[in-house]
């Protein structure tokens, strides 16, 4: 492309680069959440680390939206770009919300099954990162989306089991309130991964 | 229409047929919820029946979104088709969530007023099904929307009354947590019926 | 503009007038919420006053949506007009929800810090009203949006502190359930102010 045109036309590929960075950031944060819940030591430092990922994702989302609003040409629908960036950012907000409750609620030990729920989320964010990396080439992208849907269903079933167990086993209503919220926040993060998959599916089918 | 054009152009009418099937499915599920809460026997079988409606609705919604993404011409705005199908599907997800909590929370009797709340939802889904059936002809469709809004207000008032009564009458905090959630889930389903009405109103006014 | 054209073309400016009226209505309602929580007397009358603002906002939102659906030309994107009016209306629904819980939950005294949380919301709705007033001229509008984001972050931090204190200080689980909800409803209203700011930012950047 001649130099002038290069200057006039927006660098579309940077949308893909920003999306990839955002998705990999979310996947790193969900790995840090699994680590926090599995090895429940140095809690304040681990919570802080997840908060740092969240600030990074806010910056990346803001960069994406600003670029979107200033670009004349975009690699796919403006609305899909907006929906995709906010859905990925929502996953990270929920990961941060789950982590921060460990401090807010003075949690001293993690209930059985909750680390497994976070591991299901980690499997989902791995597929999200893989799908986003393929957004430009669109190879096998629908397979990632199918896998994300499967993991969300698994997360939903596990969430219902954990909440039923919580009510069966825990007699202290205050503990029920705290853990019901933590479990639901992690499951909602997996839900948002499904929203991400739906936008990616929509983008892929439109262009096929 | 000549045979060739018929083949090239998408069968737009199938959007209406799929929407009608989806809305009737939701209405059948809310009928099953009223039955569950009114005649609280054979609970696992009745909960399973509602879950089957939810799986059916997932398939119909997926068929709608796939058709949307592959169609060049659509009977109304792409975004409205997307919003309408997800709003109708959300109603059924919430009906399923309310039903499944009967088992998750080992409910042994239904609190007074909760079946009435579900009956208000049933009246709303009846109007939703009627409005969706009229989407193609658009006869009297705004009257259905007005009635859905009226029923949502009624549901909202009844929900606030039931929650105030719950806190007044129930001393066990665990029971309060369980029933507050069940009541709010049913009221949120009525809320989503209003979202459906808003999309239908928007579609109708744009084309008038 | 000649008389005939004036008749044919919609009066675009009335969108701005309706938005301004809606935003000022929300700001008045959050002022009434601060008053309710600071001077906790005549509670039923003050709750009723907030409910009246909510009914007014419903009418204004409905007028905006109807005008939107009937207008051929709009001052900015149809979707942004829709998103902006529903986001502003959501703020008021949440203010009303917080106020009405004072009666529903027979609150007899307001927990420390909750009036301060509402004051942060009031500061945010002041910026929302100022930004909306500037929508037509678009002077300094991004500064208002930055300030709304700053206030939402402040509200979020205060909310987390108040909920941590609630769990630390309050031993009655029923009181925890009630106050956790009231605090979260007020913080969600501040969240929705950020949604308003995001739409305004998007509108402003697109046209710059």
Question: How does the SSE layout of this entry go?
Answer:
The structure is a homotrimer of 208-residue chains.
Chain A: H1 3-8, H2 13-38, H3 43-70, H4 78-104, H5 114-133, H6 141-169, H7 173-206
How would you concisely characterize the structure shown here?
The structure is a homotrimer of 208-residue chains. With 208 residues, chain A is an all-alpha fold.
Structure description:
The structure is a homotrimer of 208-residue chains. Chain A has helices spanning 3-8, 13-38, 43-70, 78-104, 114-133, 141-169, 173-206. Chain A has 208 residues and is mostly helical. Chain A has a single domain (10-206), classed as Up-down Bundle (Methane Monooxygenase Hydroxylase, Chain G, domain 1), CATH 1.20.58. The model of chain A has no long low-confidence stretch (mean pLDDT 91). The interface between A and B is medium-sized, with 15 and 14 residues.
> Can you tell me the CATH superfamily of chain A?
Phosphate transport system protein phou homolog 2, domain 2
Our Rg estimate of chain A from Cα atoms comes to 19 Å
Oligomer: homotrimer
Terminal CA distance of chain A reads 26 Å
Low-confidence residue ranges of chain A = none
- Determine and state the CATH class of chain A: Mainly Alpha
Give helix and strand order of chain A, one letter per element, not per position.
HHHHHHH
Number of domains of chain A: 1
Question: Which percent range describes the beta-strand content of chain A?
Answer: under 5%
| SS summary, helix count of chain A | 7
């Amino acid at each position: 492309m001649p130099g002038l045109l290069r200057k006039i036309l927006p660098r579309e590929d940077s949308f893909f680069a920003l999306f990839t960075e955002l998705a990999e950031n979310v996947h790193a944060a969900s790995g840090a959440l699994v680590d926090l819940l599995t090895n429940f030591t140095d809690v304040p430092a681990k919570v802080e680390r997840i908060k740092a990922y969240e600030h990074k994702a806010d910056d990346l989302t803001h960069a994406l939206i600003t670029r979107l609003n200033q670009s004349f040409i975009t690699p796919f629908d403006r609305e899909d770009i907006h929906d995709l960036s906010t859905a990925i950012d929502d996953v990270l907000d929920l990961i941060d919300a789950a982590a921060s409750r460990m401090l807010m609620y003075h949690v001293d030990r993690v209930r059985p099954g909750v680390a497994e729920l976070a591991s299901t989320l980690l499997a989902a964010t791995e597929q999200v990162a893989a799908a986003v990396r393929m957004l430009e080439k669109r190879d096998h992208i629908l397979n990632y989306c199918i896998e994300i849907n499967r993991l969300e269903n698994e997360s939903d079933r596990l969430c219902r089991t954990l909440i039923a167990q919580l009510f069966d086993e825990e007699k202290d209503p205050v503990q029920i309130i705290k853990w019901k919220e933590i479990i639901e926040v992690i499951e909602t993060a997996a839900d948002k991964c499904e929203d991400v998959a739906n936008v990616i599916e929509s983008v892929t089918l439109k262009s096929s």
